[in-house]
Amino acid sequence: MKAQRIALFGNFGSVNLGNEGSLDAMVRFLRSKRPEAEIICICRDPKRVSKNHSIATHPLKRLWTAPRGVSLLDKLLLRIPSRILDLGHVWRIVRGIDVLLIPGTGILDDYQERPSEMPLELFQWCGISAILKRPILFVSVGAGPIRNRISRLLMVSAAKLASYRSYRDAMSKAYLSAQGVDTSKDDVYPDLVFALPVIDEAGAAQHDSARTGIIGVGVMSYFGWISNNKRGHQIYSDYLEKISQFVEWLLSRGYGVRLLIGSESDNATVKAIRDRVAKRFGTPSAKSLLAEPAESLEELMRQMKATDAIVATRFHNVVCALKCAKPVLSISYAGKNDELLEKFGLADFVQQVENLNLELLIRQFEKLEKDRVVLSTKIRGRIQLLQKSLDQQYAHLLDVLS
Q1: In the chain, how many domains are there?
Q2: CATH number at residue 341
Q3: pLDDT digits (tens, 9 = 90+) for 188-225
Q4: Quick count: other Cβ atoms within 10 Å of Cβ 160?
Q5: Strands 5-9 and 99-103
Q6: Could you give the CA distance from residue 183 to residue 320 in angstroms, rounded to a whole number?
Q7: Is the pLDDT assigned to residue 75 strictly greater than 70?
């Protein structure tokens, strides 16, 4: 019997545009190929996801504020009572589903996550799904690094329970294999965001040579990989200073700059850059320094289409730039950025965020912008191959869901 109730699990509704794009891609696929199935989502913000996708939702854990006395007693008992109630919540939801499907995202890394957050939540949902014999599918997910030992134990254990696993890059597969997961039957497919449509995609190739004079700069509120990093504020301060100087350099050369975000938290960095530029460079005109809100990857890609080239930090900013066939330079905070650009023949256009060299960044950008037409053509050819690969995975996934 085909799976009739498919639960999509992940850190959704969290205002991270990349995560929301991964969910959007999977919902589109299921509605197109399995319209008879009921889709529900287990997520961080059920109200937001329900509003955006018109699907039933459930929270990752109980949404209940205990009275002060009860909360203190729970704390004295090491949170054991609340953990038991959370497990009851998971059990009740899993009993009513046919499949637990984790669509994309870096679900198997611990970027800015404590062990008691997503690592534990993922293990609980996968563990109870396994007990109740519900298939667990990890589809085009990212894995590693997982730097906290407890988080690593929880996440790797969850991955081992899956009946189907695929990864968005070879690095993720190799990481789980090194952690003792049998990946011999697992495949590597592109990130799910590559399946999303691009605004004005038809006939876009003819515009590759038309200059807009605008450079997209994707920023990030980056405080280091580890949550509550003691060096976090210094890491962010260094990053902010160098990005601001790069924006000033672009403006001084006559370029317009469009600041791009990948999460609501990045708006603070946008404001900080604009303030610094205004203080040191003078208040730029609205046409030379653009910063518009983006609440979806669709809106983000629309902004990217109006640029000549992109310098970006967030992984899904890089993905979207490639989707739009824009030459992109990655200020990388993880190996996933590096491997993605290498796959597109852009390995020379990468720097590490915590060792960012401004002079090298300027030289890399000048070469990127000079060769942008050739690079755009190369990117378009690679995108076509990735889309075929995603079609193959979707066909395989339909078999698994049958």
Answers
A1: 2
A2: 3.40.50.2000
A3: 999 999 999 886 654 444 455 567 899 999 999 999 99
A4: 16
A5: parallel
A6: 28
A7: no
